[in-house]
UniProtKB/TrEMBL annotation:
One GO cellular component term noted in the UniProt record for this chain: mitochondrial small ribosomal subunit
Organism name: Parnassius mnemosyne (clouded apollo)
Similarity remark: Belongs to the universal ribosomal protein uS10 family.
Protein name per Swiss-Prot or TrEMBL: Small ribosomal subunit protein uS10m
PANTHER family reported for this sequence: MITOCHONDRIAL 28S RIBOSOMAL PROTEIN S10 (PTHR13334), SMALL RIBOSOMAL SUBUNIT PROTEIN US10M (PTHR13334:SF4)
SUPFAM superfamilies named among the record's database cross-references: Ribosomal protein S10
Signal sequence interval, chain numbering: none
Amino acid sequence: MNIVKGFWRSAPVFRSSFASNYNTISHAIRPLSTTTTSPLSKPVDNAPSLELDKLYKRVELEMRGIDPAVLLSYSWFCIAAASHLGIEVTKNWALRKAEKERHTLLRCVHIYKKHRVQYEIRTYFRFIHLQRLTGSTCDTYLEYIERNLPEGCALKVTKVECQKLPEHFIPPSK
């Protein structure tokens, strides 16, 4: 009977051959999920106090890379992931020009000052602003996009957290 279970779940060809005997083998296949509806025995008196989740007003993502096409593709990926999690993306932009870093070196160590070589490194930037996030959603989203960060790219995250007003501030009296 175990062979029938494996075939039933995996291959439609085998399912069709067993379709006539479906009524006889359906009781042998277990459901994939079960639900239990047992009431709690007794409420817990010493329950720990719930820790409130952090709230972030804005999360800024700064992406740096050496290839603008890879950065554009990765920013689309980040925006798609945010939309699937229900995160509001307010801004998405790139700098117009790349940041250039030039290094000049002599070809020969000893002499020939006029024989120089210049090397240039271009760094491209993209920015994404996300608004109104909870701490757990932010952590999940950031872990997901960090794991899928392509080669040659760097990610910098800046969070602006909402905090409770300190107790020593008193509202103005009328």
